[in-house]
Amino acid sequence: MSRWPSLNRREFLSTALGAAASFSIVPSGPRLIGELLEPQSKFAPFQFPDEFIWGAATAAYQIEGAWSEDGKGESIWDRFSHTPGKVKGAATGDVACDSYHRFKEDVALLEALNLTSYRFSISWPRIQPDGSGAANSKGLDYYKRLADALLEARIRPLSTLYHWDLPQRLEEAGGWPNRDLAARFTDYADLTVRALGDRISDWCIFNEPWVFTFLGYGRGIHAPARSNFAECMRATHVVNIAQGQAFRAIKAINSKLQVGTAFSMSNCEPATSSEADRRAADRAHALGNVWFVHPALRGEYPKAFPGDDPLDLMGVKSGDLELCRARLDFLGINYYRRQLVSAVPPGAGETATGIHNFDAHEGPLTDFAWEVWPDSFHDLVFRISREYKTTPLEITENGCSYLDGPDEHGRIPDERRIQFMRAYLHALGRAMLHGANVRAYHHWSLLDNFEWAEGYAQRFGLTYVDFRTQKRTVKDSGHWYAKLASTGSLT
Ligand code: FCB
Q1: pLDDT band at 32 (very low <50, low <70, confident <90, very high)
Q2: Is 275 a residue of the active site?
Q3: Ligand 1 close to Cβ of residue 451 (< 6 A)
Q4: 165 lines ligand 1 (CB under 6 A)
Q5: Among 1-5, 272-276, 430-434, which stretch is predicted with the lowest mean pLDDT?
Q6: d(C-alpha 102, C-alpha 104), whole Å
Q7: How far is the CA of 421 from the centre of ligand 1 (A)?
Q8: How far does residue 402's CA lie from ligand 1's centre (Å)?
């Protein structure tokens, strides 16, 4: 069993950078976003279809606060952030953006931005404080009020059942590596959708299954801070079973509900043109992008290991792959940046995949040091639309962290975010011209918020939040996006 050093998310994603320095492909120095838009054709005006859905996304733990109010139970993120040394600046989500109390203000912001979809998540421990048993009616009431306010504002609620805040009690019972969790999760999905399915028609089962299994159980840099490859692989299988079972439970309540998952994806590009690196990039795509898509849509695991898949290690039993099947109504794509991939000799633990992936630094960097490379967004969306032809896509997250704050007039001039959005939306438009069936785009995020292990050190919002006063101010990028959302024309 291998253990990984404890690194923060950014550091982790850059672990190979030292090694990367020896690859000729790597950085000739950061460039300006404008340069990436060349040639001119990439600027070609694009008209999004009238029915295209414009939205913004958030997650319960990152914005709600009220961490122990109205009967809410403790989650693994409460435990993690309350443990000294886990989150930058000892930050917690105890208050965050206080959206639990200010959700009406946040719905008004969405309206002011002309958005027609709001992707938010439901906190499992608000509904089942210990992760099982009867629902806490106060928790359900909160989401009823939120959904009603959205519907009144003609905004589609797109609700995520699990955005990482597992009830702590369930972690103590073994967490995601414990097979029993698939049944617990299905019960939670069932009772939540029974209560809210009359007003919420669109559901994401999970947010980024790769991130919460690999970073939470494999590398220990997210809650619940375990680092054990075998447990991580077991967790991935339990999540796949849970996805299939929850899908069936939701469809049994109402087959018309639209059900998908928001998957984290990165375009995986070979670090060199060698055959070995190309094959490694394909394995990285299998493990990082479609490990939770393929079992649902095809009833099998994609080929991510040079040898046999570690099915025993994962606890796969006969008949399990049928349980994982789910004809998802849409695939949600959360897209931030590409990955470069090189082949390494397969070893133990995670290196059994024989892949080594690392962030590229050829393009300009955001303030989170994530590379801006819009073409990779086009390529990934196009690839997924080709591989899973009949399933529509929604962009469930895309965004960037820039730390711009108010100027002397109280305005937030975040020109770099506008450039980022323009470039990524042009790339999306090109993927659609090339045939990708994309029906929605959600910017991450509506608000600056609690960015997991980074605490409040990153700002992804279209709206600036002053965390001392909770005052919200729409940034210039928010105004720019509002215009786009009302016309659909990207010029
Ligand atoms: C994604 C998460 C989201 C947010 C963004 C920046 O991986 O789904 O909660 O933290 O990254």
Answers
A1: low
A2: no
A3: yes
A4: no
A5: 1-5
A6: 5
A7: 16
A8: 14
What lies within 8 Å, CB to CB, of 190 at 6+ separation is 246, 249, 250, 253
Using most ligand atoms within 8 A of CB, pick from 208, 222, 289, 450 the residue to mutate for ligand 1: 208
Rounded to the nearest whole angstrom, what is the distance from the C-alpha of residue 170 to the centroid of ligand 1?
23
pLDDT tens-digit readout, 257-311: 999 999 999 999 999 999 999 999 999 999 999 999 999 999 999 999 998 889 9
The answer to whether the CB of 385 is under 6 A from ligand 1 is: no
CA of 148 from ligand 1 middle (Å) equals: 26
Q: Check 208, 231, 371, 394 and give the catalytic one.
A: 208
Q: What is the mean pLDDT of the chain?
A: 93
pLDDT tens per residue, range 320-334: 999 999 999 999 999
Q: State which of 264, 444, 446, 460 you would mutate to test the pocket of ligand 1, scoring each by most atoms of that ligand within 8 A of its C-beta.
A: 444
| Catalytic pick among 74, 269, 397, 451 | 397
Task: Calculate mean pLDDT across residues 411-421.
Answer: 98
